[in-house]
Amino acid sequence: MKREDKSDDYLIYSWDDRCQFRCMKPGGQEGGDGYFLGGVALIVAGLYFFMDSVHVTSGQFGAISRMVGRGRSGMETTSMGIVFLPFLIGVGVLFYDSSKKWGWWLAGLGLIMLVIEMVSRIQFRMDIKSSTFLLMFCFIAAGAGLATRGLQLNKRKAKSERGSKGE
């Protein structure tokens, strides 16, 4: 846009000159966009098929409940109460007096223990044929190769343009 100064000490912008934006291709240069976009499409398709074939379930025992159970002659506990105990004591101390640092540490440690217990109970299961599994990862690998080739074409073209301008 073009600025025009007026005598009243303010600026008026003319709408005659529009801003022109240069369309940037993958890698910041022109060229290679077909390879890059085709590669990204293959990666997305492979990841979709992979994520679609994974079933997520919850297990019976987590990491902390397994450790507590080993101390009791190998019997694993299914009770989450022992995992909640440090968090609940820490929160209770904080409601009584929030300036106690050990209460903050205990509540934080309890929260970390809860997160570890929940995440360690997650189980992933895949029920697919090996040919489908290989096809999914071939999609991802081919897509990564094409996307990288598209970016490399851009870099080579930029270097050759810089070399021809310098001569």
The total of helices stands at 5
Mean pLDDT: 75
Reading side by side through the largest sheet, how are the strands ordered?
A: 1-2
Low-pLDDT residue intervals, each spanning 5 or more residues: 8-17
Strand content: 5-15%
Total E-strand runs: 4
Radius of gyration: 30 Å
Shape: elongated
Main sheet record: 2 strands, antiparallel
Query: What kind of assembly state do the chains in view correspond to?
Result: single chain
Structural class: mainly alpha
Percent helix, as a range, is 55-70%
Distance from N terminus to C terminus (CA atoms, Å) equals 35 Å
Strand/helix succession: EEHEHHHEH
Structural notes for this entry:
With 167 residues, this protein is mainly alpha-helical. The protein has a domain at 54-125. The protein has helices at 33-53, 63-70, 81-96, 101-120, 130-166, and strands at 2-5, 11-14, 54-58, 122-126. Strand 1 and strand 2 (11-14) form a beta hairpin. The longest helix is centred in the C-terminal third of the chain and has 37 residues, at 130-166.
What are the defining features of this structure?
elongated, mainly alpha, 167 residues
Concise description?
The chain is mainly alpha-helical. Helices cover 61% and strands 11% of the residues. A two-stranded antiparallel ribbon has the order 1-2. A two-stranded antiparallel ribbon has the order 3-4.
List the SSEs and their pairings:
Blueprint: E1 2-5, E2 11-14, H1 33-53, E3 54-58, H2 63-70, H3 81-96, H4 101-120, E4 122-126, H5 130-166
Antiparallel strand pairs: 1-2, 3-4
Helix pairs in contact: 1-5, 3-4
